[in-house]
């Protein structure tokens, strides 16, 4: 972290700590306390929404579970704070795991509906279970006691501040670690995550559990803060507010969460007070005008797109001076502001400001790090096993989609250390074979054995962990992540660190992180992408995206690498470089199955070539032999051959 950043954080913390003394008014202290508590929920919700890309409308329910766990423990057992907070985290985490179950089956609007139902059920249960929760009457609590001393409003505010900072640090560290990269990867491409050994199922559950734990902690803090809890609080409106706050503040950002929390707490208050609303809307118009001016000048956005937010905020400021009373307009203005932010600032306020000021979310010194990398830094490890022995044996593979036999009784035997070509006309079943070998499709009949062990019943992630890596015909990168982080997802298997190691930055995690980073940089250099290590994958040209997929697959330390049309979309010089890369991969003992339409690439690289046509293997042998095979010529050229 750079010195100005550290100074800014120190000033922020000092201001936060001194706030009660500065304002002196308990109402404002309570307001900021609520913002801090909501921010803890939003840190968690952002993991689910911003990082893994799932929708959750169940977080108000989880927040309520935290509040009621603390409330019930205090009411029934007189439990102290050090019991209620961990209990709230634990109970909410268990419910978070339950909430994750539908996310494993459905996505998008369906998931929104299921999580919404979850939240509603929780609210009803709290209402109905009067023997435990006092039902609609609610539970009254006092501020917590520590060592026999009951905290006052300011002391409790400090406690919330400390827990907010602790949550922020832990969440930030998790999201910067291999766990965070796994969350982000499953948003970018679930199928590629699985094929990198990062189980989509497992990491979705982790994300929901961590997120729920934070909601539980925040709920418990909220119970003490309000000193009264009732089921009405944890309703649909609150859950929508939480979601809006993440979107408005800016997803994948802790500052965005804090900003979002401030908006949802302060905006309704602001709309209650006309004078304050006028001042705030003028301030907003000035800020937006300056930000838009800077962005246009730097060429980040076009004047036309800058005009809409500028005009919108100026119009809002003008309207504020026309209004005589806020009462009738409160909800309409709230709705309009929300609509405006969500529609025009799709990356949220933080995303907009970052874009306008040309700031990057990731550090951009990766390219320099590659340049400084020791020449001997190893990219590939030597794959074990005796060259020439059978590595992969697929026999009698049948893959049926309805009436279509995409693969019909196909045998494929691949020797260790070889480059095995798999060719055939379009639609002949090559990619289907890849998907069968990597566990994405379960074959209708037949068997696949890898290194002497059957792959039957294994998930794609388990097959990847056994040493089978792949690239995809339609590139499947994690678009929002840098090239370096894409490769580091492939190195997920090299981490043994758990949540504690990550949260506390224990030596084991730091060692693994450093090693993985160096290895990823070396892999990028290996495929010639060293200069672009810090670039977001989606911004790379198509050909380089293909090379990045190869680097990511190699990060798995595979014994077998499946390349699905790696030369597609590459220029002639790039194809020459690709050939050299594939040769080097083989020299490291990695076996390669190569699907390719560029026949010169196949013929110059492959030791053996198998040819598929209409799902059946029609020929197999050395490149020259296959090229001269009449059935192959017929398949490729149709009737013209004869
Ligand atoms: N999930 C699926 N559901 C239904 N049909 C499928 C599915 N996947 C593949 N197919 C069909 O199986 C056949 C083989 O497709 P596949 O993609 O394996 O061919 P390919 O040899 O890789 O072709 P190309 O070179 O064009 O990529 C095609 O007819 C395709 O439409």
Automatic annotation (TrEMBL):
GO terms for molecular function: ATP binding. It holds the Pfam family ABC_tran. The keyword Transferase does not apply. InterPro entries: AAA+_ATPase, ABC_AA/LPS_Transport, ABC_transp_permease, ABC_transporter-like_ATP-bd, BCA_ABC_TP_C, LivM-like, P-loop_NTPase. The chain crosses the membrane at residues 30-49, 56-75, 81-101, 108-126, 156-175, 205-225, 277-294, 329-345. It is a multi-pass membrane protein. It is found in: Cell membrane. It comes from the Bacteria. This is Branched-chain amino acid ABC transporter ATP-binding protein/permease. SUPFAM superfamilies: P-loop containing nucleoside triphosphate hydrolases. CDD domains: ABC_Mj1267_LivG_branched, TM_PBP1_LivM_like. It comes from Ideonella azotifigens. Residues 392-639 form the ABC transporter domain. Keywords: ATP-binding, Cell membrane, Membrane, Nucleotide-binding, Transmembrane, Transmembrane helix, Transport. The keyword Translocase does not apply.
